[in-house]
Automatic annotation (TrEMBL):
Originating species: Galactobacter valiniphilus
One family name in Pfam for this protein: HTH_20
Domain HTH arsR-type, chain residue ranges per copy: 234-318
Protein's UniProt name: ArsR family transcriptional regulator
CDD domains linked to this entry: HTH_ARSR (cd00090)
Molecular function as annotated in GO: DNA binding; DNA-binding transcription factor activity
PROSITE patterns: HTH_ARSR_2 (PS50987)
Highest taxon above the source species: Bacteria
Length: 318
């Protein structure tokens, strides 16, 4: 178990973040040990045709059988708009000392694939990660980001209405909060304590974790990854229109939208999911909102829609 100790300013400074590189690093665990991630089998099926062209020798040595990932793949996002290009540029500047310090705790030694001239090793790592991003993540990232943003909006609402206790209790089974300490039970026998001590604490939703996950190196600002709401439906195809009373009442498209918005989503994400234009989706969303069936909230540059209590009752009844 890892125990993080908070002072009052640390609690007030707690924040959420999204990191493309962090998602890729956690995705490597799915590739290495797919049997532990049943919800992501569809993603593996999506990317299976491109796996032979990836530099798997490098990628699969960035994670081990305990599902420990090299900490340089878990950056703290500098802003809500962090891009993979910015994170890869920062990774390309990693020092030899940091590279070794992040890899040796995973394997007990530095694997042979990472030995050699430092600049050449880093170049190969960055190229391997960039290729995996463009082939395995970029086509799905708009939808992934929408799920992650919707999760942050939901946790922020819990924090505003129920306080830190309700918010932390909603994140994962392996964590406990007592107002001063955040205890995280790890998958291994790793035991440690860490003072947050003004360094900030970042909470990051992820498509690729099944419970709480944290970092190996406790000398860096702490961060907790937790499973995003809606990740189970991330890769499923949307079902056909409801042919019952709800469809007769609202029409097929609006009934499908209402069914889809059990989890908050943006019009852009919905347009991708339904294969229609954003403007067409927006017309339906405005009608549903004016009818009292949807609420909306702003997150960054996105407007997220979700079912109101009336919409929830109607969708549940259907």
């Amino acid at each position: 178990m890892i125990r993080y100790t908070f002072r009052a300013p640390d609690v007030a400074a707690l924040r959420f973040g999204i990191s493309p590189l962090n998602e890729l690093g956690l995705g490597l665990r799915v590739l290495r040990l797919p049997e532990h991630y049943p919800l992501q089998q569809a993603w593996i099926s999506h990317i299976h045709p491109v796996l032979p062209v990836l530099d798997q020798e490098v990628l699969l040595h960035l994670v081990d059988e305990r599902r420990w990932v090299a900490d340089f793949l878990n950056p703290r996002p500098a802003s809500p708009l962090t891009s993979i290009d910015d994170e890869l540029a920062a990774l390309s500047r990693i020092t030899p000392e940091r590279l070794r310090a992040d890899l040796e705790p995973i394997h007990g030694t530095l694997p042979a694939v990472f030995r050699g001239p430092h600049r050449e090793v880093v170049r190969r790592i960055v190229e391997a990660i960039a290729s995996m991003w463009h082939l395995c993540f970029a086509p799905h990232w708009p939808r992934m980001r929408s799920v992650l943003q919707a999760d942050i909006t939901h946790r922020s609402r819990l924090l505003a209405t129920g306080g830190y206790e309700d918010m932390f209790a909603s994140l994962a089974k392996r964590i406990a909060w007592d107002g001063k300490h955040l205890d995280v039970r790890t998958m291994s026998n790793f035991e440690a304590e860490q003072e947050v001590a003004g360094r900030g604490f970042t909470l990051m939703p992820s498509i690729f974790v099944t419970d709480a996950s944290t970092l190996i190196d406790l000398d860096r600002p702490p961060m907790l990854m937790y499973p995003a709401r809606g990740q189970g439906a991330m890769w499923s195809s949307h079902p056909g229109a409801d042919r019952g009373a709800l469809t007769q009442l609202l029409g097929a498209t609006r009934a499908e939208l209402l069914a889809a918005l059990g989890e908050p989503a943006s019009s852009t994400e919905l347009a991708l999911r339904f294969g229609v234009s954003t403007s067409a989706i927006n017309q339906h969303l405005r009608v549903l909102e004016r009818s009292g069936l949807l609420n909306r909230t702003r997150y960054g540059r996105s407007v997220l829609y979700y079912r109101s209590d009336l919409g929830q009752s109607l969708a549940s009844g259907a």
